[in-house]
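--- STAGE predict ---
source: upstream dedup step, 1 unique chain passed
mode: sequence only
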Amino acid sequence: MKVLKMLNVNTDSVMLPLNLLGKDVSIVFQSQVITNVISTSLNKNKQMPFNIVLVEPEIPNNTGNIGRVSLASGSVLHLVKPFGFELSDARLKRAGLDYWKHITVKIYESLDEFLAMNKDKEMVFLSSAAKKSYVSIDYKDDLFFVFGKESVGLPKELVANNTDKLYKIPIHSPHVRSLNLANAVSIVVFEGLRSMAVSENS
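--- STAGE serialize ---
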């Protein structure tokens, strides 16, 4: 596992892409709306509240948008190889804004390495094969949200071994197979922030 900064391997974060021309207005809006939730639920506890895990991500713009969500929510981003792109990809460099240097990213050579290094961590797995909704997740500090690749989702063996920890985002149209990965991550993470803030203030 590596923790790195783009073009500087011995540091502890990585600059990832932001698709400035993409349709990501909803994510910007959600980040702004959640500001008060972040300030009330996270400032009291300086630990990173969540861990966002992408298993074999394929699309650099999605990973870039998820990086921004990680920063906005105070989460750690975990990237599991193989990737469908290179971190040296020119698209990543063009999209590297100043605040990307603040994102903490951990990189793993394989799913086996990720699971071995985080074997004692509490995880939930997001999959269309799940029966439970993401709103029923028991959100807590240091929880790991594990997402699969854009084309096929999580590996079948991983899903089969974690049936009691599977959650999905309900989709209310037979014409939609799945949500964009970056949108799905945003929905789950910000629901977690909201849920934790409500619990602390109740």
